[in-house]
Design goal:
alpha/beta; 5-stranded parallel beta sheet; 15 strands; about 375 residues; Rossmann fold
Amino acid sequence: MKKTIRIVYGIAALACILLAGCKSGSDTIKIGGVFPLSGNVAVYGVEARNGVELAIEEINAAGGVNGKKFELISEDDEGKPDISVNAYNKLTARDNVKIVIGSLTSGCTIAITSKAQAQGVVLVAPAATAEDVTSAGDFIFRACFIDPFQGTVGGLFAANDLGTSRAAVLYDNGNDYSVGLKDNFVLAFQMRGGEIVANESYTTGDVDFNAQITKIKAASPDIVYLPDYYNTVSLVAKQLRAQGVDTPIVGADGWDGLTENAGDEVLNGYYSNHYASDSTDSKVQNFVAAYNAKFGSIPVSFAALGYDSMYLIKDAIVAAGSDDPAKVKDALAAINGSYVTGNLSFDAKHNPVKSAVIVEIVKQDGKLTTVYKTTVDP
């Protein structure tokens, strides 16, 4: 009889181990993270993951939520949509995650939104700005504003704040992010009486832009709009300046990372962003100080968006009184609160309603950095 009891208890213990621990499972809320931790846009993913980790550390230190602590399980998608799908599948099937933060770029995020919707997994995209990201359904949210708004912000800033009237645009015709920004910049700039004097494009992966820049220079613009990611922007800016195009250049949040990866060619550069690290807002100041203390650097917007994404999830779980994803997504939809990247509520498509800031790239103490320039409201 005792032998039989020992066998039964042994089987029960083994079952607990196979199910990742009976006790730890009930005391932990697993958060899946899909980030580009390597590859061309790794700086985005590392910063976003750092922001999420900092938020979880703070929340857990304050006692967690509903008697539970958060645990982040993050996967690297290398900035590639097919790998994003593999990462998502691993998190949901093997790790049994029901809430996911990620991915960072729009293409990688769109690759997993339909899966999340079909499986009832809450997905919060920190920085995927393409308009279609949330179209998969009501389990999909994002913490960032969308490309149409961001492109419009660039056009309004160029016309109203910089006082320019002749713009050239240079964009990646194979990148939805770049194309969407360009289209909305053009509309906003033209609505303010501006003229597009050069409309040039290139292909993803190109490194020589001199032919396009020659045409841009001949058109004599007083501003160049360059909507792409920081690694490409740095290459283009060098070639612009080398050909004597010294006009202001304007871009979007994909420029984050330029100050660590470019030189003086990006001075006289401005871009729309989700927050400014030199803001006097107490939430921003506390976040920047905590991030700098933990990671030894000033956080870019992707860190702030990752941080806000985690706090949005935490606040929704508190409001719902549950970590059940169906209840969490309803609570998320009703949120209206103040976060590091601004006061945030969601519209009917689960896109945030919030302001954008424009930052300027300057040189301070021999180093490139960004400073707050202005705010543009929705």
